[in-house]
Design a protein that fits this description.
The protein has six helices and no strands. The chain has 154 residues and is mostly helical.
Length: 154
């Protein structure tokens, strides 16, 4: 992951999620596309796991040279993972309303947060789609109405 990635970078721009979830389908794709170039998608889908400390500190207090090297490497990996998590979580937080933030802020990882949003809005988006389909079927052009205006509305 690049250490130059900043939340203010233009490629991270995602439209704000509507509190009702009316724009969930578009929001979801914008969000996933925005974090993919930063190599943060793995934090959302759960394939990037927090690195596990290779040393069992309850067993030994004195580390061998190899264990010291392994510990230093683990700390680097952990730092990079935490940075990725922080950026992914901040990208979610910056693109949702405060009321949704309050619902998801108790989750620890970016994946848990994303899963909570998906669970909340995926079914709602299907209901919105059915409702829009029904509205489209109900639309009719008036007898002497403007056909162009009708098609534009559709």
């Amino acid at each position: 992951m690049s250490s130059t990635t900043k939340l203010g970078d233009e490629f991270l721009h995602v439209p704000k999620l509507n509190v009702t979830g009316m724009n969930w389908v578009i929001y979801k794709d914008h969000f996933l596309w925005s974090i993919d170039p930063c190599r943060l998608l793995e934090h959302i889908d759960g394939s990037e796991q927090q690195p596990i400390d290779p040393i069992d500190h309850t067993v030994t207090s004195v580390l061998s040279a190899d264990e010291q090297v392994a510990e230093v490497e683990w700390k680097k990996l952990l730092k990079a993972w935490k940075q990725g998590e922080a950026i992914a979580k901040q990208q979610i937080a910056g693109t949702i309303p405060d009321s949704l933030f309050m619902k998801i802020c108790g989750h620890e990882t970016a994946k848990e947060i994303w899963d909570a949003l998906v669970n909340n809005f995926q079914n709602k988006s299907q209901m919105v789609s059915v409702n829009l389909h029904h509205q489209l079927q109900e639309e009719k052009c008036l007898e002497k109405g403007d056909v162009r205006a009708h098609f534009m509305k559709l």
